[in-house]
Amino acid sequence: MTVQVVTDSSCCLSPEQLRANGLRQASLHLLLDGRDVPEDDASLGEDWLSRPDLSTAAANEGELAALYAQALAASSGDGVVAVHLSGALSATAAAAQAAAARSNGGVLVVDSQQAAMGVGFAALAAARAAAFGAGREEVAEAARATAAATGTWGFVDTLDWLRRSGRIPRAAWLVGTALSIRAVLRLSDGKLQIADRARTRDRARGKIVELARARFGESGALVAVRHQQAAEQAGELAAALSGELQLAGEVDIAPANRVLGAHLGTGALVVSIAPAQTGRFACG
């Protein structure tokens, strides 16, 4: 068999993408009406984001351990690489390490220091390496290299959602709210930061394009845009990026996973960009 790759639902990959690449996925959780519900639960209605008691939770150690055990059995001894959401943003990475400790060394956990398709691109690179017969260490390195080379930026209409979940300091929230600014966000060393500020959506979108062009304008790039109830705006951002970057394929546009949407709020956009070639096993 081959090394098996596990990820979590923060990766924002579709069920079709997961199946096509042989990826197993653990679900993050929503807390609603006192219930702990996997975010990919089909019973969740359309009004989940409007619930006043909405909060989120990481994938837990028990469910990760069970998923790792299944993957280990399928690997026939080749082992498992688990590619997860940044440990600075979620307790999932810590739970993953605890779950991996139960495997007698069979599971290698990669804290991607990424979110959204930053995790997704890393998981895809790991899956590609595994499909080519790479060993566990090389599969993990493919994930690490891709995650490190990927840029992830975002835009939110309001900082209220991020403040509610504790993802930004109160001082930053107060300034943003008082000035009615749109925040342009970035991931740096696995942590969420405010990269820039803009008065309008169009200017915020332009800031993201500028940041992307500065980092990836000279090389082939893979681009994914995830949105929270903002399909039209996601398409506009994708078109703007297409005009500035040398794309290695069509821009991948899809809704964000629910946990990400719960932290960013309605109208949020997140773009992740990876080099088309990173090491021996590119994710594209």
TrEMBL record:
Species this chain originates from: Segniliparus rotundus (strain ATCC BAA-972 / CDC 1076 / CIP 108378 / DSM 44985 / JCM 13578)
MF-aspect GO terms: lipid binding
Record-linked SUPFAM superfamilies: DAK1/DegV-like
Alphabetical list of Pfam families matching this protein: DegV
Keywords: Lipid-binding
Top-level taxon: Bacteria
PANTHER family assigned: DEGV DOMAIN-CONTAINING PROTEIN DR_1986-RELATED, FATTY ACID-BINDING PROTEIN TM_1468
Protein name, as recorded: DegV family protein
PROSITE patterns in UniProt: DEGV
Annotated InterPro entries: DegV, DegV_C, DegV_domain_contain
